[in-house]
Amino acid sequence: MRLFDLTGRVAIVTGGNGGIGLGMARGLCEAGAHAVLVGRNREKGDQAASGLDADGLKASFIEADVTDEAACRRAVASVVAAQGGVDILINNAGIAIRKQPEDYTLAEWHKVLDTNLTSAFIMSQAVHTSMKARGGGKIISIGSVLALFGAPFSVAYSSSKGGLVQFTKALATAWAPDNIQVNAILPGWIDTELTVAARAQVEGLEAKIMDRVPAKRWGKVQDFAGAAIFLSGAASDFVTGTSLLVDGGFAAQG
Ligand code: NDP
Hints:
Layout: E1 10-14, H1 19-30, E2 34-39, H2 42-54, E3 58-63, H3 69-83, E4 88-91, H4 106-133, E5 137-142, H5 155-175, E6 180-187, H6 193-201, H7 205-212, H8 225-232, E7 243-246
Parallel strand pairs: 1-2, 1-4, 2-3, 4-5, 5-6, 6-7
Helix pairs in contact: 1-8, 3-4, 4-5
Bound molecules: NADPH dihydro-nicotinamide-adenine-dinucleotide phosphate.
Residues 14-15, 17-21, 39-41, 44, 65-67, 92-95, 115, 142, 144, 187, 189-190, 192-195 line the site of NADPH dihydro-nicotinamide-adenine-dinucleotide phosphate.
Pfam families: adh_short (PF00106)
Family: Belongs to the short-chain dehydrogenases/reductases (SDR) family.
GO molecular function: oxidoreductase activity, acting on the CH-OH group of donors, NAD or NADP as acceptor
């Protein structure tokens, strides 16, 4: 169990106040970590942290917009001050704006890239000093199967997620000497608020997805706890620069 034991570790999970982020945060807490949830919505964040607390787990919430560099740096500094450092960072906050490429405004493009990709750079840079001082760390970024495939409505989203896969490889090579492992998780179709919107917007999406997913079901947020624990613990100490698909076989089908 030592391989999957996160007792005493401090984890920051952006977008940890809901959806997949909260599913992973719960997993890390159950493995012994203290999870700091970062998000914009304080009410949702306090509720999520209290829910974990009520189950005897260690969690707290910090309000920050991951597109705001100063807010990200303040959030990390406050975690270091309160908890003594950071061992695990999960770059999970993400948004999708679904439109045909010709209808996208430049502001919308920047919003998706800033939230999904640039935030991972800012947060990773912000935790580097603390991880290095603690002798190592784990950085996990949440991409998507749309890092590998195109879809007509996903020009900015796919670009941001494809960028995260390459970001993961580059950072892994740069920080391997600091004993910081950098990996990504690529979710398939998961039942969260993000896909509620997609299902409402894209006609026939539900049927198309069920037809394409070999597991014949939507992913659940709980499906991400195991991958997050593996990539956060000693079990993955020689795993770096990789992207792990958690998609019910969607990408394997080609
Ligand atoms: P949700 O919409 O349920 O959750 C997204 C989270 O990101 C929210 O908690 C939200 O918090 C946070 N967030 C968004 N923008 C910001 C911001 N600017 N600053 C801080 N926090 C922010 O989505 P999912 O749980 O489904 O998605 C989580 C990740 O998984 C995303 O990166 C997404 O792209 C990826 N993913 C999801 C898939 C799916 O099918 N659901 C498939 C593939 C990838 P708040 O409300 O406080 O802003």
